[in-house]
Amino acid sequence: MKHHLAIATALVAALGATTPSLALAQNPPAQTYEPGFWQPVARYNPNSRAEVRLVNRTGRTLFYDLTSDDATSRRLRPGATVLMTNIRPDSYVLVYSEDTSEQGGFPVEYRVSADANRITATISRGATLPGDQTLHLHGNGGIFVY
């Protein structure tokens, strides 16, 4: 019995005497980072509703729609800006061209910024098909472009 008590006391003393070592973060971040559609382009607070501002810099009429909305597609004229408010997390904003002068429309690309749940997507002509089509406000706070 005394033998077990001595072993238990020794273990407690040995384990209690160790100090944890700290691991410092790697600077710069990991070398495995690769940009792609799986990386968020910006972040927002998913615990609050968001506003999305679309700015058309393509020179052509675009159409846009919000998948969490029952409304039909709406037009976004060249040079125009539209503000969509009260956007819930995990919503998708679709923007596309139906320009009949080009087969299948033309590709677009987004430049996205976010400030206090005010998200701005400036839309310009893309270089290659299919281009960007969807702005996803993910439920985890990431804003993705597909």
Q: Helix tally?
A: 1
Mean pLDDT: 78
Low-confidence stretches: 18-29
List SSEs in N-to-C order: HEEEEEEEEEE
What percent of the residues sit in helical stretches (DSSP H or I)? 10-25%
Query: Proportion of β residues?
Result: 35-45%
Strand order, largest beta sheet: 1-10-9-6-3-4
Shape: globular
The major beta sheet can be summarized as: 6 strands, antiparallel
Count of strand segments? 10
Radius of gyration: 26 Å
How many angstroms separate the termini? 68 Å
Structural class: mainly beta
Key traits:
146 residues; mainly beta; six-stranded antiparallel β-sheet; four-stranded mixed β-sheet; 1 helix; 10 strands; 11% helix; 37% strand; globular
Structure report:
By secondary structure, the chain is mainly β. The protein is built from one helix and ten strands; from the N terminus they run αββββββββββ. The chain has one helix at residues 2-17, and strands at residues 42-43, 50-56, 62-66, 74-76, 81-87, 91-96, 108-115, 118-125, 134-137, 142-145. The N and C termini lie far apart (68 Å).
